[in-house]
Amino acid sequence: MRFFVPERELSAYRVGRTVRFACDGCAKGLSARIAYVSPRPEFTPPVIYSREARDRLVYLVEAQPNVRLNPGQPVDVEPLP
Predict the structure, then answer these.
(1) Residue 48 is part of which domain span?
(2) Contacts with 74 (C-beta within 8 Å, 6 or more apart), sequence order
């Protein structure tokens, strides 16, 4: 699973930490373990599915979900405390 994190939220996403995610038609309470956080920022891709397109500088994060997802399937992600 790949998603982008705004620079101001990056400290909550570290390799080895767990994130909670949701998607349309998926079960509740899904989680994934972060496997990679890009060391370099990039500008928001032209096609990104997010509720807020305000943040232009983002970091790519990859996580291993505990379920199988379809390629390109939009997800809502949040870090666990």
Answers:
(1) 2-79
(2) 23, 24, 49
